[in-house]
Design goal:
Number of helices: 8
Distance between the termini: 72 Å
Helix content: 40-55%
Strand content: 15-25%
Largest sheet: 5 strands, mixed
Radius of gyration: 22 Å
């Protein structure tokens, strides 16, 4: 009887260790995928399963919301400089996107409307692209006469360091910062008609 119990316990332990090993490997693969995406400028969504993206996105949301804005100084596509901390006192909307992202491009019309609606108020909308200046220039040239609206709000190309700074792992991601400079919401996914509602709420 003792030997039978021992065999059953031993078998159960082996199964448990196999499960633990599998989970560790799965977690390691996820980390490696994120690391390769960051290093080689790939879009995380191209290499990571949606469920894994959701997990990491929720983790990063929790790490940002309620905290002070993460300052950066960057050059816009039109060569003007944006110093984020100087915009404190405004509602700041940071929209992270890239040119090959259909949901990102689907937001452009609503962001244009919000930008023009709040143009003379204390609301600043800034887009940060996971693309080079040359890629953005080509995109604007190709889309200027196409079905997708031209982006009317400021664009920061080469935003790779800022994307890493804000822990962006899925696109589009929009960060809402209140007038006190506190990050109030990290929204993953297309906002579409919800944009103005959020801006007014955090204003």
């Amino acid at each position: 009887l003792f030997m039978l119990v021992f065999v059953q316990i031993n078998s159960t332990c082996r199964i448990i260790f196999k499960v633990i090993k599998y989970l560790k490997m799965k977690y390691l693969v996820s980390i490696l995928m994120l690391s390769s995406s960051a290093l080689f400028g790939q879009t995380p969504g191209d290499s990571i399963a949606p469920r894994q993206i959701d997990t990491f996105t929720e983790m990063f949301k929790d790490s940002l919301q309620g905290k002070e804005l993460l300052n950066f100084t960057a050059q816009q596509f039109n060569d003007e400089i944006i110093d984020l901390k100087r915009l404190k006192g405004n509602v700041i909307v940071l929209n992270f996107w890239f040119v090959g992202c259909p949901p990102c491009l689907g937001e452009v019309g609503d962001f244009n409307k919000a930008f023009n609606h709040f143009k003379d108020s204390s609301v600043k909308i800034i887009s940060l692209a996971n693309n080079t200046h040359a890629q953005i220039a080509k995109f604007i040239e190709n889309k200027s006469s196409g079905p997708i609206e031209k982006i009317q709000y400021p664009i920061i190309p080469d935003a790779f360091k800022i994307i890493k700074q804000y822990n962006v792992v899925s696109y589009p991601t929009t960060v809402f910062i209140d007038k006190k400079g506190v990050i109030r919401l990290v929204y993953s996914g297309a906002l579409v008609s919800s944009l103005q509602k959020y801006v007014q709420f955090y204003g």
